[in-house]
Amino acid sequence: MSRKKSSSTKKGHDGEESYDMPGTAESMETEYDDRELEHAMPGADMSTETYQSHDHMPGSSMNDDTFRATDNGTPQTRRCGTMDVHRRLLASDPHYARARSEIENLTLRLAATDGARTGVTRIPVVVHVVWNTAAQNLSEAQINSQIDVLNRDYRRTNPDVSSTPTPFQPLTADARIQFFLANVDPNGAPTNGITRRQTTLTSFSDNDAIKSAASGGADPWPADRYLNLWTAPRLTSAIGDLLGYAQFPGGPAATDGVVILHSAFGTTGTAATPFNLGRTATHEIGHYLNLNHIWGDDGTGCSGSDNVDDTPNQGGPNFGAPAFPHLSCSNGPNGDMFMNYMDYVDDRAMFMFTTGQVTRMQACLDGPRNSIGVSAAVAAPRKSSSPVVAWAANRLDVFAISTDLALYHKWWDGSNWGPSLTGYERMGGACTSSPQVVAWAANRLDVFLTGTDAALYHKWWDGANWGPSLTDYERMGGVCVGEPRVVSWGPNRLDVFVVSSDRALYHKWWDGANWGPSLTGYERMGGVCRGQPEVVSWGPNRLDIFVVGPDLALYHKWWDGSNWGPSLTGYERMGGVCMSSPRAVAWGPNRLDVFVVGPDGALYHKWWDGANWGPSLTGYERMGGACIGEPEVVAWGPNRLDVFVIGPDRALYHKWWDGANWGPSLTGYERMDGVCTSSPRVTSWGPNRLDVFVTGTDLALYHKWWDGANWGPSLTGYERMGGVITSF
Ligand SMILES: [Ca+2]
Ligand SMILES: [Ca+2]
Ligand SMILES: [Zn+2]
Description:
By secondary structure, the protein is mainly beta. Strands 3, 4, 5, 7, 9 and 10 form a six-stranded mixed sheet that branches. Strands 11, 12, 13, 14, 15 and 46 form a six-stranded antiparallel sheet that branches.
């Protein structure tokens, strides 16, 4: 990522720390792209609507309730149906051709740059075992043996990679992808990542019938979050029996995934020679990640291409176990790269991907498949900015402002707190808002702050260094009132929202290459806003914004990927009398949960189920309590919510949605003690994991965590983490 450096750096008062936050305050009129004049939010429409009360539980609101429990048909040569499916989709699905060409353009663009994605992507897998005879009901051992093969082949730790002919050795590459059987199902329940379905059908074709229970197969899990693998009793096609087939990225979600013949799956059980080393799945998942056959799918011609530069041009497919070199298309002296996973050779004869193929797969993970494999909290990219973020499993970064108005940072690396349990890294600046941080990918952080001149300031961690420097900031103009709010809907994407002195909402965005509308300019979005806006993204290129209007009602606007709804400067009125900033979270695509504190101090909730607002557009579910400040909400998985509030006794209180019920009850709370002087800041680095941070009366940071079974250091205890924190 290349970003503009901030223009000026000056010495701080201590002569050691440099910073450039206070600058000349530029007027809002020159800073903002002030081209929209409409104010769609009413200014004096005092609400007569009241909350819909669903007060099912009598009794005290903040009760300390109980703790949550919380065979035949194996071909003799490799044959794959992916291209047949590709041609069928091209002919039958008008969206598919366009999506494929857009993906190819994006791939070229991403491959031309370095690509944003670093590190290893971990993809959750669900295996749907569709069986007719008992033998086809594959054992867990056979399924695990397949996952093991994938994790060797896609990390270049397969021992046979050393058999690659010497001239091709330098091209062999680690694809930086790992696979694991899903441990959380789409409803948030624990799972072993395997579904089983007995079918009356003895055979399936490549017409995708196996991907639907209605046609004798098994329904997929959401393809944006899981790699669906189906094992088939037998696979046929117009060209004969198949070992498997995949759907390229860009196809319908309902049929996305990979189908593999049971006897070509894994290395044990029913796996049959010569396809008993698990390489059919390696090959088909290559297609799923946008790899083409290495010979270019042009019959035996020399004009086709796999769109990868470092694989030699090759005539047709190779079969069996060829001897090196095998020449075609004038590609001597080294000839075909037949030992590549994307040729048609036997399992024992294929053992490598190239650097160019890895670039293509990584571009697929940055592009059409960017919603899969975000190991740390699938929900993390959707979450609004916070002083606390988790960029991967068991990784935490915490930011706070101290009495000198400088930014301070500490981090959990999986085993230790850096720079120490009670120590902080000083990052300069003169900050007047809490730090708002998002992680758009593993080991990537973007920090936004308001400076003493009311302008917005930005710094970022690129995986190795802080930009523009450890203690410098990029100045982004504007006149910010209150806290900015930031969200990232995908890799290398940022959307920043601030309220300015005219109380309108302003927006700027990072598109991966540039700031829009300009580095210091803003898009004016109308409205008359109170407090901090809330922003959440439930999927790529989707944004939902919530603000409180002058009538204390909640207002909503959204970006659908191409337009702002209801209009650029208009808002949907959602009723209520909001005494806190709204807090929203998306636990899955097209799902929103919004929480506010009402005039009676109780917590109120409304939700979008993909089609309607519940309990109604302007109604709210009353959840009891007596809340000080704003609530905090996180979702650690689908259909899971954890809500934290501070009570009138300054203790921390907790409630949770387990997918079916609110715990400890609709209006009850779990008391977690403490005497808190900040709002709770909570993040989740993975399923069933929570980390909670508050400041205490000594202004030190305190921490507690849920490990899936227990609260640490105890239900009511906290880990003291030092510091003198004034804004968090
Ligand atoms: Ca090539
Ligand atoms: Ca060819
Ligand atoms: Zn293939």
